[in-house]
Amino acid sequence: MAPPVFRTENLTKVYDTGKVKVHALAGVDLELYEGELTVLLGPSGSGKSTLLNILGGLDTATSGRVWFRDLELTGMGDRQLTAYRRDHVGFVFQFYNLVASLTARENVQLVTDVSKHPMRPAEALALVGLEPRLDHFPAELSGGEQQRVAIARAIAKRPEVLLCDEPTGALDSKTGVQVLEALQRVNDELGTATVVITHNAMIRKMAHRVLRFQDGRISSVETNDTRLAPSEIEW
Ligand SMILES: Nc1ncnc2c1ncn2[C@@H]1O[C@H](COP(=O)(O)OP(=O)(O)OP(=O)(O)O)[C@@H](O)[C@H]1O
């Protein structure tokens, strides 16, 4: 088996708010692999976003270790983490954060202009099914289309990992499925290791693996022998 893309060892995160200490991660050991689509499930506050933010170099652990391939993220300073994010990681969040005054193509171009080996913005937008909407502004696009622009923006630099925090959280079932189809296609065609946090348990059915969180720990790991296509998922 190929070595993992991510590996963590007894990862902990404690938020010290002065009055109380919140143990957001209480010892997480995991490995995530190339080409794998992993869904993270678990109740609110169980540590999913904290883990995603540490994997993506947006936050740092309190103790334990985390590696992206051979690169140890724990102990890196801000500049190194910024370079790591820029070179290797794509993020998709619940809210799309597109620039309202720029078209879909221009929003993606913001990233391709500063990336080392980007795809063309039109190519990234075609991968998420938005070829006919290249020159539309965000306000002229549906929520699902805007989220697909955000996915195109995240993948246009050809990141090795795509980290998604509630990517369908603001969408109804029909538009949400289109977003899941875009994520699936990126995972299939580019082999991007993809992590999706969701509160929608149905989405676990399209994953290769499902990690459930409880109180800052992984409480179970499931592997799907048969996966459902996004079009077979409804909520
Ligand atoms: N910046 C912070 N300061 C203090 N506590 C925090 C901070 N960020 C997260 N927490 C706490 O850490 C715990 C884990 O939060 P986290 O956002 O990782 O959970 P989650 O599983 O992603 O939840 P949700 O599904 O609601 O997004 C929670 O108790 C949360 O309140």
From TrEMBL:
Which Pfam families does the record cross-reference, listed alphabetically? ABC_tran (PF00005)
Residue ranges occupied by any ABC transporter domain in the UniProt entry? 6-233
Q: Does the keyword Cell division apply?
A: no
* Transmembrane regions listed in the UniProt entry: none
Q: Which CDD domains match?
A: ABC_MJ0796_LolCDE_FtsE
Kindly give the Gene3D superfamilies that the UniProt entry links to this protein.
P-loop containing nucleotide triphosphate hydrolases
Please provide, alphabetically and separated by semicolons, the GO molecular function terms listed in this UniProt record: ATP binding
Keyword Nucleotide-binding attributed: yes
Keyword terms, alphabetized: ATP-binding, Nucleotide-binding, Transport
Identify the InterPro entries for this entry.
AAA+_ATPase, ABC_transporter-like_ATP-bd, ABC_transporter-like_CS, MacB-like_ATP-bd, P-loop_NTPase
What's the family? Belongs to the ABC transporter superfamily.
Q: What is this protein called?
A: ABC transporter ATP-binding protein
